[in-house]
Design a protein that fits this description.
The structure holds 2 protein chains of 2 kinds. Chain A is α/β, with parallel strands linked by helices. Chain A is built from 5 helices and 5 strands. The longest helix of chain A has 13 residues. Chain A is globular and about 30 Å long. The chains are: A alpha/beta, B alpha+beta.
Chain lengths: 122, 154
């Protein structure tokens, strides 16, 4: 059975890229939202296997949203997807319990490695 | 910028990043040329809200952004909403890499707001040009990347 993803990114371009890159893989996009507030609501409704999360978004940023999801569900598997590649940002994300980090522009191999890593972690 | 880097050093970073990202993401080669975009233009820009107090804008002919979008979408046509959305994502990647390179050079972490897109020339209020790098593309489109400083720093 395929693994269900929830994509959180204010840019629909990332959703389109994810759908294209994941065609034919075990991962499928089951839900999409454009900001943190929507993400908190949708997460509870669709219970995805993995969440991909942008950092820069209107309202709550991705780190705040990841933190909120993990507070409600410590088992949540979150992969950050961002153009901000600082060690500090990565450390902050890992400190929250995020499973992996993918840098934009998204390469298929990097994305799949990150999703598989997140899937394996318990 | 709290100026911690000489403008020449920053200019080199901007130049290297825009040429690399535009080729990798958009399939377009850029060559340095001191020309202002002249035909129908669009501007995409960000302002930074952490670290450097600056803004970055990219002004280019609309056809440049159309071609970029078509390449990113791998489609022959692009509607205005596609051009705006894909341009903003391209610019997000560009500014993310510039931020990272500036961090490596000056050890200052920065973060920027969501990119905005406008038809025509546009400069955010309260920002002045600090330097600009200009290009001509492999299909003769004019492109100008500008770094702006907040006026409160003058």
């Amino acid at each position: 059975m395929g693994k269900r993803l929830m994509v959180v990114d204010d840019s629909r371009v990332v959703l389109l890229q994810m759908q294209k890159l994941l065609e034919g893989t075990e991962f499928e996009v089951a839900g999409y939202c454009r900001d943190g507030e929507e993400a908190l609501d949708l997460y509870g409704k669709i219970q995805p296997d993995i969440v991909t999360m942008d950092i820069i978004m209107p309202g709550m940023d991705g780190l705040e949203t990841a933190e909120a999801i993990l507070e409600d569900d410590p088992e949540a598997k979150i992969v950050m997807v961002s153009s901000l590649a600082y060690d500090g940002t990565i450390r902050e994300a890992e400190g929250l319990g995020v499973k992996a980090f993918v840098y934009k522009p998204i390469e298929k191999s990097d994305l799949l490695d990150a999703l598989e890593k997140a899937s394996e972690e318990s | 910028m709290d100026v911690v880097m000489h403008s020449k050093g920053m200019e080199d970073i901007f130049d290297q990043v825009i040429r690399r990202v535009t080729k990798q993401t958009g399939g377009i080669s850029l060559y340095r040329r001191e020309l202002l975009p002249a035909e129908r233009v669009c501007t995409v820009f960000v302002v930074f809200d952490k670290g450097f107090r600056m803004g970055i804008s990219l002004c280019a002919e609309e056809i440049f952004f159309t071609r970029l979008t078509q390449y990113m979408m791998q489609e022959d046509t692009a509607v205005p909403q596609d051009i705006e959305d894909f341009t903003k994502e391209y610019f997000n990647v560009l500014c993310g890499e510039i931020s990272y390179r500036l961090f490596q050079a000056a050890d200052i972490a920065s973060r920027f707001k969501i990119p905005e897109f406008r038809y025509g020339f546009y400069k955010p209020e309260n920002y002045r040009e600090y330097f600009a790098v200009s290009y001509i593309s492999d299909e003769n489109e004019h492109v100008r990347l500008t770094m702006m400083r907040h006026e409160n720093l003058e």
